[in-house]
């Protein structure tokens, strides 16, 4: 039995949950999300809780049990509180700016600026003082994919640390040529 799958999901105030056959819909103040449930899993709505159970005890049902519970929990948390990730930009002349309601302009040392259109349901803000980009949304997976895409425009390099990195990430620095050649 999955330890994660056995845990019940509490439903906070202001969140509506609708369960139809193989679909779970969650609506809240931050938005609405929908998820398909595998055939081996059964989802029940009891009082102000959601219970995820297996229909059988085969290996495949066990694999989906904890996953389905986590996905539904992320939907409930996302529509009630939302998710956010932060990126830091390091480098001389590197900067970011939010244009309009869904475009992020990045200047990252290339010959041209990069314009990234944010998908629907995701917002970004830029703190100019610390060169920090904050990406927010109700879908945890979508926020993670957007942050990874923005980071991929200029990955942090190990010599000077220039590039875009996650706020909690630590870049392991390498010694440059001058220091490496002096040991001979």
Characterization of the model:
The structure is a single chain. With 184 residues, this protein is α+β, with helices and mostly antiparallel strands. It folds into two domains: 78 residues, Ribosomal protein L6 (Outer Surface Protein A, domain 3), CATH 3.90.930; 84 residues, Outer Surface Protein A, domain 3 (Alpha-Beta Complex). Helices cover 24% and strands 38% of the residues. The strands form four sheets. It has a four-stranded antiparallel sheet, covered by helices on one side. It has a three-stranded antiparallel sheet with strand order 1-6-5.
CATH topology of the largest domain: Outer Surface Protein A, domain 3
Relative strand content: 35-45%
The count of strands amounts to: 13
Distance between the termini: 60 Å
Average of the residue pLDDT scores? 91
Q: What general outline do the C-alpha atoms trace?
A: elongated
**Name of the level-1 CATH class of the largest domain:** Alpha Beta
When the domains are counted, the total is 2
């Amino acid at each position: 039995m999955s330890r994660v799958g056995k845990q019940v999901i509490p439903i906070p105030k202001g969140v509506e949950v609708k369960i139809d056959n193989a679909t779970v819909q969650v609506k809240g103040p931050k938005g609405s999300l929908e998820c398909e449930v595998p055939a081996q899993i059964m989802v029940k709505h009891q009082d102000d809780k959601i219970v995820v159970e297996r229909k059988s005890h085969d290996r495949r049902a066990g694999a989906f049990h904890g996953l389905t519970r986590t996905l539904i929990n992320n939907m409930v948390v996302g529509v009630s509180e939302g998710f956010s990730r932060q990126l830091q930009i390091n480098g001389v002349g590197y900067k970011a700016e939010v244009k309009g309601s869904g475009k992020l302009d990045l200047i990252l040392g290339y010959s041209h600026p990069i314009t990234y259109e944010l998908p629907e349901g995701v917002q970004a803000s830029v703190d100019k003082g610390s060169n920090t980009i904050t990406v927010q949304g109700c879908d945890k997976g979508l926020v993670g994919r957007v942050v990874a895409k923005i980071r991929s425009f200029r990955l942090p390099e190990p010599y000077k640390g220039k590039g875009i990195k996650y706020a909690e990430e630590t870049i392991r620095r390498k010694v440059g040529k001058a220091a490496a050649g002096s040991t001979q």
